[in-house]
What we know:
TIM Barrel; Lyase, Ornithine Decarboxylase, Chain A, domain 1; eight-stranded mixed sheet; 11 helices; 18 strands; binds pyridoxal-5'-phosphate
Amino acid sequence: MSANDIAIPADTGATLVVNLDAIAENYALLQKTCPQARIGASVKADAYGLGLAPVARTLSKAGCHTFFVATAGEGLTLRGILPESEIVVLNGPEREQTDLFAGGALIPTLNSLEQIERWQQRSPADPSPAYLHVDTGMNRLGLSASDVDTLIAEPARLNGVTISTLMSHLACADTPAHPMNAAQLSAFQAARARLETVTGALRASLANSPGVFLGPDYHFDLVRPGAALYGLAPSPDRPNPMKQTIEIHAKILQLRDVDTPMTVGYGATHQVEKPARIATVAAGYGDGYPRAAASRTGGSMHAYIADYKTTLFGRVSMDLITLDVSDLPDELAVPGQTVELLGPHVSPDDLARSAGTIGYEILTGFGNRLHRLYRGGGD
Ligand SMILES: *Cc1c(COP(=O)(O)O)cnc(C)c1O
C-alpha cells in the first residue's frame, strides 16, 4: 500500500488504515506456530483500538471461535456482532451481573472464591461452563495458592458450577529467558493436577501472544493472543514474525521557512539552529500520536514523506505535529501532501519505543477523530 493510495477526506486530518487481511495472516501464522492448540483471540479494548466489529468478523472468518474481552459490556457488544462464537469475559462477573452473562451467553472467568460463589448463586437456568483463573505469579487476577487449597478442601464450593477451562497468565513471556516463565509453567501444571482431583479433566490455557513463541510446553489446549494478531512484536529482543496491520497517514497543512533565533512549538523548546523548512501536519496527541515521542529533545521520532525520512521538530501538540522537511524535494513539500506517521517505514513498536511506552498503548490510544479505513477482510 503506498501513501498515494490513502485517501484522507477533506474534513479530517489523518487516516488510520487497518489491513484486515494482515490480521487474518497473523492468525494463520499463530495457528501454524501452535498447531495442537486452538486460538482464542483477545479483542478487548475495541480489539486493541483497531475496531471490534471488523476485527472480530475477520478473525471469525479466519476460523477463530473463542474471543476474550475484559468486561461484560464488551462481551454484550461482541455478542451483537458474533451470535455463535464463544465469548469469555476475563474480568469475571461483578456484583449483580450474572443476568447480563446469561442474557449474552457470555462465559465468565472466575477469578476468586467470591466470584465462584456469585456464579454458583446465579439463575439456575444458565448452565454455561466457566473458565477458572489461577494466579501463578502475576498477582493481578486469579485464585491464589491458598484459594486453590480451599477449593480442594471444600469441593462443595463448586456445586452447580461447571469449569471447562483452567487458565493462568504469564508475566514475563516477552523475555523468553526470564526464569519466571518456567516457574509459572510448573505452578500452572501443579495447580491443574490438584484441581482436576475435584473437577475432573480440564482444558488448559496459559499463553498470551509472547507465550505462543515460548514453545509447545506453553500451548496447552487454547492460546489467547491479542497483540501478535495486530502485528506487535512478541518479544522486543527478537525479529518480529508478525505482519504490520495498521498505517496512519496525515496531511501537511502548511510549510514555513525558519531561521535563528526562532523556536518552534509550545514551550519554545526547540531552537532553530540553521535555516530550515518546517511542515505542519494535521495529527497530534488528540489522535493518539504520543506527545512523548518528541517532548524531551524536540525531535527523536521520524515520519516519512514518500521514501524521505523527516524528523519531528518541536513538541507534539493536540492537533498538530511539526516536521523538519528541509531536505525534502520541493514538489513534495506542499500542503495536502500525505505523511506516513505509521506504515512501511515506521511500526507501532518503533513509535512506542520513541515515546518510552509499548505498542499496546499506542494501538489502544488512537482517537475517534482519526478517519478509519478498512482494507481487505473479504468484503
Ligand atoms: C490481554 C490478555 C491476553 C492477550 O495478551 P497479548 O499480550 O495481547 O497477547 C491474554 N490473556 C489475558 C488474561 C489477558 O488479560
